[in-house]
Specification:
The chain is an alpha/beta fold. It is built from 6 helices and 8 strands; from the N terminus they run αβαβαβαβαββββα. The protein has one domain: Rossmann fold. Helices cover 42% and strands 18% of the residues. Strands 1, 2, 3, 4, 5 and 6 form a 6-stranded parallel sheet that branches. A two-stranded antiparallel ribbon has the order 7-8. Strand 7 and strand 8 form a beta hairpin. It is globular and about 45 Å long. One of its GO terms (cellular component) is cytosol.
Amino acid sequence: MDTTNAAQAAAPLTLALVVASDREGRFAPVVADWFRTRVAERADFELTVVDLAEVSLPTTLSHDPGPEVRAELARVTPVLEAADAYVVLTPEYNHSFPASLKNLVDRHYTEWRAKPVGFVSYGGISGGIRAVEQLRQVYAEMHAVTVRDGVVLPNVHGQFEDGLLKDPTGPEAGAKLMLDQLAWWGRALKDAKAVRPYAV
């Protein structure tokens, strides 16, 4: 491996964390802060965040979205485009995922293409797994690769105290496994696209 290729292989992958909930009083910041500390412990990722509570995108889709929507997209789209991999942090609403997330996905297409996606889900007794199962189908349509393992936090309000997990063993193991898989797929897909552009 020459010096240039070695430097590229050693460079951290850009990981975009998409915080899906935009509800008032949401629990998402607690889970997101915990997950960000897990990523910060690793040298193979550089984290960026898209928090949908801080993005104002109307649900009406238009070929000419207007200057306000274009300005919002100008804040979000480059972050998604630059990412080598994604983690979607989502609650489960009525056996599915938030409308804010579907709106974001539907406004982007090529940005997700041939990149890996992992999931951190939370909720009641199911821990958000039904939302994740539906998201796997959505991201398959985007030509993204969803990794097998993720983080599932059932009965999430009872799992945290003062922003810390009462028993971090399982979630931390899940986060490590998911991030390991994202690192492998992120590097493999990035290298592959450098040799041969992905064709739909």
